[in-house]
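Translate sequence into structure tokens.
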Amino acid sequence: MKMVWMIAGLFGVLLLAGCGALLAANSVEKPPYESVMLDGDFELRDYAEQVVAEVTTTGARQQAVSAGFRPLAGYIFAKERAGDKIAMTAPVTQTPGDGGEWVVRFIMPSQYTLETLPKPAGSQVRLETLPPRRMAAVRFSGVATDALIAEQELRLVTWMEARGLSPTDTPTYAYYNDPFTPGFLRRNEVLVPVQ
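Result follows.
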């Protein structure tokens, strides 16, 4: 009987943690978009202009996103600059560049412009404006391993080809949850800009 109560207690703790993770994920601002086409896990979206804070990192994908997260978090939480904190948003995005480089971005809350954002203290964090763009997206759950991302990227490219959609640039990987969120509750996306 004691074992049953222990299992029930563990299940209750996991359930509460999952609910907390969902509430936290749903309470942060996400970039708005217009859905042009929805097809199961796949979507064609039109995004408006976005202001972002970004850093360039190198190395393996997971290490690069972690390395990029630290200075970006330092920027929004005013750890190395004067001024107020900036609210966290979702997703954190990561785009491959040339020669093993990655661009890791935080999308800034919608009330900010380049002119109204606090200036970064150092040269590592850059503030940029992304132009309006159309993106093909696939949404999936789980821990975003290299294998899972590659599988979902292939699914998205196959879906795009079947609809005559041509990519205009490299894919972007989007992570919506903190690393403590259970894999089955996580929201991840692969986004590819299209013509």
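Note: DSSP finds three helices and nine strands in the chain.
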